[in-house]
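Example record

The entry below shows one chain as it appears in the dataset: sequence first, then structure tokens.
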Amino acid sequence: MADTLLSVGLDVGTTTTQMIVSRLTVENKATGFAVPEMEIAKREILYKGKVHFTPLFGEKRVDKAGLQALVEREYALAGIKREQVDTGAVIITGETSRKENAKTALEALSQYAGEFVVATAGPDLESILAARGAGAVEYSERTGKLVLHMDIGGGTSNLCLVKAGKIIATGCLNVGGRLIKRDESGNVTYRSPVLAYTAEELPLKDMVFALEMAAGLRPADELLSRFMTEEITAPWEIPTERPVISFSGGVADCIEKDHPPLAFGDIGPELGQAIRESKLCDGEYILGTETIRATVIGAGCYSTTLSGSTVFYRGVQFPMKNLPVVEFAPGKGAEETVVFSIPGEEKLSYARIRKLADALANQIKGPIFVALQADAAKALGHCLCLLLPADRPICCIDRVKLTEGGFLDIGAPVGPALPVVIKTLILSQ
């Protein structure tokens, strides 16, 4: 019998805030007497909330009470309660992530929105969720094509390069429709500080040039590096062949629709039309199956994955949230509770497992949480039990690939596996 998880996605963007509720169905794909292989086999959207303007106090602060009230209304309309929610993600993006109180607002939403709803604000994860929510990953997998997905919102453009369904690079540019606001007469009422280095009269041209450079359609120069956000964790990999360009985000709705220039009080319609006339739309391009809702659908349907089934845990309380990821090495300990990743080893001999257990037991004084790529978590956990007193918490999971500098959330068991969310926690000031 399949297990299910109720998932909530909440996207607090530069311009809009949206919520969805979905049901994730977990099934065992293994056959016969094989080790269980748990997968999320089905994602069903149960509720799509309205698109709300993000509650703000002026240009500097998020209206925390307004956001909480918005989520409360959406929960009532969806017919769910916080104690019913198993997983999901709360994402704060673009210009909103730069507000003075963004972190406290995000924490308040995380606590309100459910026991295992994740507070996350990293562009790596946002890029992946938008590409999945828009259908770009599925399109690449189905066609085998190289696809560059651009989720162009109010404050930022999240980039995700996908080859034959595999995500190979993520990036983020300070390009968005809400970076410049206009009044009814067309006068500029707001210009984002991230555009300080661009010419007053040419921000649209600069923005489009930066997007073309990121797609490998124009020789890259210092303009691209100026638009790249600082939060992304790896250098952007410029495609060497012409990819299919996939679009989502609020600006994507302005690419093929002729909105009046002042329709939204910003440069979104002008940016969309400039993209339509650029090299980005000269070749093959597609609009996502979801445009303005791509990120929130990704957050609600694709933020959660499952560990392997041979996990081990004792003395821990689920969920465990925001555990920093540290790559384990000889002599390396940690003052705080972290998850130690064991990268680059897909198969472990019993001798290697015993050696790892000895090193972990000798170097770590507090709880021992470990994430392996190899399918050996249960064996490592049992070895640790022989070396540690019964009151030392242990949690070992496998089939999870983590990188140092990230964070991990681990939820209560679903069958023999554990739901996990791999993320970054970055808020710009």
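Notes for this example: The CA atoms of residues 9 and 191 lie 30 Å apart. DSSP finds ten helices and 23 strands in the chain.
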